[in-house]
Predict the structure of DNA polymerase III subunit delta.
Amino acid sequence: MNELEYLKRAFDKERLAHAYILCGNDENKVQESAQEFVRYINCAKRSENSCKECESCLAIDGNRFPDLYRVAPHGTEEESQWRAEIKIGQIRQLGMSLSRAAWNAPFQVAIVEQAHTMNVEAQSAFLKLLEEPRGPVLFLLLTKHEFVLLDTIRSRAQQLACWNFTARPEQARSLEEFQKLQQVSLHERFVVAKELAENPSRISVELEKWLYAARAALMNTLKEKADGSSLSKMLKTVRAIQEVSAILARTNSNARLALERLMIEF
Ligand SMILES: [Zn+2]
């Protein structure tokens, strides 16, 4: 059962949690899951899926559904990948919107896109929203760096993983590239780090490819029943890539330094 089916079944059984963190590497897929779920719970003609053509479905897709609120980081696409933030004002605004009753939906839904871009103040404000008693509201936090969220937020939300590592041709290539990268000298890896740091828009793409490759390598190691030390090294590598992705997505850290630190782990 994927994350979307899980949510739909929970809704059918009236057992929805108050908040969910949908985390996954494929932002479009996570986004579409959230969208379909909101359509599903409001659809006038739902079966297994939403009908996508009733008034509610059309309003949701047209971004004019009165009981759905979205919060997203401001900034250009490139910035939103690395620098843009969701600020406290946006969360306060959301709180005000949610303080009135739902128009005609079973409950209000708040979708926080790229939730990891909430800065610390915004996260604290969001935590308050989660804690305050209010009418029926469902929070959906979409993110690919869930560990950037405050523990207190994560403990109040149910986490659903939507990782998508179906091997696409470019990903098979990325495993090869990654293995090559692991074999070259540290000096050569630092050159890669320098070049990448000079092309900020490519950083997230490359990090994601490395993460895919490192996970694939980890799976292979597991299958081969390798010894504990190579397993723990692989795990450390995966973790290091996730951490550097999160650090660069959240802060103004020096990209080159962060990437060099990562290269030492490879
Ligand atoms: Zn519909």
